[in-house]
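Need N5-carboxyaminoimidazole ribonucleotide synthase's 3D structure for a figure. Predict it.
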Amino acid sequence: MKKLYVLGTGQLGRMLRQAGEPLGIAIYLLSADSKIEITIENRSLITAEIEHWPDTQFTKKLAVNDSFINRDVFPIVSDRLFQKQFLDRLNLVTVPWKPLLSSSQWDEIFSLLGTLVVVKQRTGGYDGKSQWRLCSHSLSLLPNKFYDNAIVEKTINFIDEISLIGARGYNGKIIFYPLTYNFHQDGILRASVVLRDVNSLQKELEDMLACIMNQLNYIGIMTMECFVTKKGIFINELAPRVHNSGHWTQNGASINQFEMHLRAILDFPMPPPIIYMPAVMLNLIGININIDWLNDPIIHLHWYNKEVYSHRKVGHLNVVSDDPMKISIALSRLESILPPTYAKSISWLQKKLSRDKN
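Structure prediction for N5-carboxyaminoimidazole ribonucleotide synthase:
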C-alpha cells in the first residue's frame, strides 16, 4: 500500500483521503504542530491541502524536506505579492495592482487603479476574509497592521468569473478540466457550473496555466481563477492545490480532481478524464443537513461533518445530468427547501444552463 501525508486536516484533506482509499493509498492528515517524523529514506511523500500554515517546528522541518512535493512553490504562490511578481515576469495579464507599503501611497494608488480598490492581505485570507473594498472615504476601515503586508488591486468589471484546473505529472504531461463558471456572493464561492458548450477561451487559458506550471516545475493539481472582461482575460489568483470550484468533478468526471492530484504526485497514469456535463456545484454554507435534498436522483450530497455556523462551508451538492433542463428542475426543487439566501445562486445557475446550446 502506498503511503502519503497531507499537511492540513480540513475537508480538502479528507476528500483526498476518500479519493485515495479505492487506489490503495493510505493517507494521513497532519496538523501544523504534528510530532510525526517524516524522512526521505522511508519514501513517504507529502502534499498539502492548504497553502498557508503556521510557522512551527514541524513546518520548518517540512520546508527543507525533499519529500514535500512543491515545497519550493508554496512560498511563491501563497504570498500574493510574490505571486503577482511571478506572473508579471511571465508577462501574463493579472488584475492591475500595487504593493501597499504605507498610507502615503493612497493618492498615487487611486490615481493609478481608480477610485474603488480591493486590498488583500499578502498571505492567508479566503472567502472574503482579510480583504477590503475601499475608496478615499473609507480608508479608516483598514487596520494599520496591513500596511507593508498587503497588495491593492483595481476593481474589475467582469462578465464572468471562471477557473481552470490542471494537473501536471513528473514527465511534464498536463491534464486540464473544462473551464468552470463561478458565482461569488460576499466574497464566498456559492456556485459553480460546467457547460457542454465548449468555451472559446479554453485553449488560451490552458496555455497560460501550462506556462505557469512548467515554470514552477509544479506537480499535481493547480487552479487558476480569472476574470473575463470586454478587454480580455485577467488572472485573479492561483491556488496550488485542489480547489472548491473543482468539487463538481466528484460526480461530473470519471477521475475527479482529488484522485488526479494523487495520481500526479504518486506518478500513477494520468489519462484525460471523461467529463459528464452539464455539472453544477452548490456550496452549503452555515446550514444544517437536510435529507430531503436527496429526493432527486441526480443530486449528490457531500457533507463535511463540521460544526455549523454562519458563513462556514459545511458541505456541497453536485447536480449532474446530460440534460440541462433536468438540472434546472432539480435546482428549482432545491430552492424550495433551501434558505432564501440561495435564490441568487440558483437563479444564476439556471441562467447559465439556459444558454447551454450544445
